[in-house]
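Supplementary Text 2. Reproducibility record for the structural model of the 320-residue chain.

All settings were left at their defaults, and a single model was retained for analysis rather than an ensemble. We include the record here because the model underlies the residue-level annotations in Supplementary Table 4.
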Amino acid sequence: MSTTTLPPTEKAAPRQAPSGGASDRVRAERRLGWILAGPAFAVMLLVTAYPIVQAVYDSLFSYRLTDPGNREFVGLGNYWVVLTDALWWQSFGVTVLITVITVAVELVLGFALALVMLKALKGLRPILRAAILLPYAIITVVSAFAWQFAFDLTSGFVNTWFAWLPGVSADTDWFGGTGTSLFVICLAEIWKTTPFISLLLLAGLAQVPDVLQEAAQVDGATWWQRMRKVTIPNMKAAIMVALLFRTLDAFRVFDSIFVMTAGANGTETVSFLAYRQTIARLEIGLGSAVSVLLFLSVVLIAFGFIKGFKVDLAQARGEK
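Retained model, structure tokens:
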């Protein structure tokens, strides 16, 4: 009697998302995210879109608030005036200088503080984190006034305390020159916003798997090798977010300049230039053109960071 051998039953292959597509879970999470954040996003878009559109519209006119009847359409003429003026390029250079210096120093200090907060004893972590984040809780204007008072020639205490340092004496006028003024401004910005960087980097450090660290240590990797090959690559998304947010914020620096120097001694930034043209001189057309150019610069910076880091945010969230 012959028997028929049935072929083994093939197990159904698990359903997978098409190549380049998103899974059902990812699509459901995105849909839920839009439902929850959609109303707030719509309100924010409405609040921010109107001023941007109004600024673009005003930048196309030669319009001075003291002479509202003499409003003339000039097209891109205001942009030509701004971009061919040496004052714009000087302000742009000062803005870039402040941004590069502050963000670079804050990234290093923020990373060090994040490591300290991560490795601190459990009982000390809340106290340590509160102490580190305290400067970020202070209003920027209040912080700027405090730093101005500290470095003031007559009422400040920096010259008295640090007279033993080379180049510092009782009659050092920190706000009397471009270099020293920018030094104080950068110092105030670094002190104020380094905690913000450290908080974002701490979140990135917490996402680095301990298994990878232990495996690298077993393989004989040094601390620096583990940092360069394991820690930093696995927190690339957090570094990009920290750099992006802080760079965009630093590029629009205004409060510290307004309080400490009011743009004197070559410390005028693009934001302060827009303020001076629009508020002080009431040149609505030229001021709007400067504001639009500042907005475009910020957009280009954000685009460059996102393209330059090439971070797969879906993979960073564990969706792939």
